[in-house]
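I'd like us to work through together how a protein chain folds, taking it slowly. To get us started, please write out a protein record for me. Label the sequence line and the structure token line clearly, so we can match residues to local backbone shapes. Once you have written the record down, we can walk along the chain together.
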Amino acid sequence: MAKAKLFNSKEALLEGYCDLNRTPHLDNYLSKGKGGRKVYLLGRVLPSGNISLMRYSCSNGKRQREMLNVVLKLEVDANVKRENEEKLRLQALACDALNADLERREANFQSSIKSKVLLLDFIRQVGEAALKETGNRHSMYATMNSLAKHVEAYAGTDTRFKEVDEDWLRGFIDYLKHDALNVNYTRTEKEGRRKEIHISQNTQHRLIVNMNYVLNKAVKKHLITSNPMDLLDNSDKVSAKSGTREYLTSEEVELLIQTPFTHGKYHIKEAFLFSCYTGLRFSDLKQLKMSDFRFDRKHGWYLKIKMVKTREPLTIFIPNVAYDLLPATEDEDRPVFDLPKNDYANQALQRWLKDAGIKGKHITFHCARHSAATILYSAGLPLQTIQKQLGHIKAQTTEIYAKMMEDAQHEASSKMDELFKH
């Protein structure tokens, strides 16, 4: 048997697999739309002489390119040749499946792939992809995990995309409204059992938005032909409830300053007040290091960090009252604040608030961020300044605090009518 020829130059690599057709039917894949295919492969020569494969798809007159991170290497021996042929064989199979699916979709047939894909698997894949891209466990990764838990609670683990239609979504929304419980439950102090807490209206809204995001992703991946969420009216969904964020007034923050913290060894008091002064999130406080601080002769201390949640850069100036709270440390690259997990921190925070005599509010660590925004707005700072201090990407997010203060002022005037009406 003749020994297989090695393609040890970029020209030989391209020509060999296209023209010599060493792998059966490969010319259909490595040629630009040859044979009228809708999905095919093209090779791009790298500086090393290796060939990077790209997959193209043509649909409704539009061409899309997808980088595959698959490289054909110059063949220095038979082992590399076998690896190249196996890579191409697998990509050819993928092209066949996608090409057939695209032709079916354009002929108004249901996707052949979607019937095999589990909804839960895809949701988790979206979260894992976001984690791999950003390294951030507090944003899209956590969001998709939460959605997956509620989908599993509603429909089990074996729901396939072909089952997710208009009626399925209505049932899921009804579950969110009436049956869904907070997956981050707390324990009662006396009984040590799960405390069942129904999710809030805003959480319901976010989960529906996240489901819509997943379904749109599935459309782009050709798993479904259209998003069934588009068939629902707004009245079928759950709207966000504005103006419900809890916060502390400057007087209540002053009470906390005067109240000793006696509920553990952690820097919960220092970190919470630091957040009240700066608006930093709990996730950012946990990773804050002295090496993140800078000093400017004109303006004093400031921070330059990348926010954990959004991965966006943030530069904020630090008031002296906040800087004075920083615990002493000799290692500039260790976290400044010694903090537990968020749930434990919130439980200790509740006990400290009780010591300070602050009642009637459900305050969590994140409420320190809300408190910073409302205190600054009450002091007359413009919304654009507050937006920059908190690192909000959208101005609408900051405007929520203005609406909250207006509602509070209206409630105060209504209370006067109630107290002094004749």
User: Anything to note?
Assistant: Residues 10-106 form one domain. The chain has a mean pLDDT of 78. Residues 78-106 form the longest helix (29 residues). The beta strands are 39-45, 51-59, 62-72, 186-187, 194-195, 293-296, 300-306, 313-317.
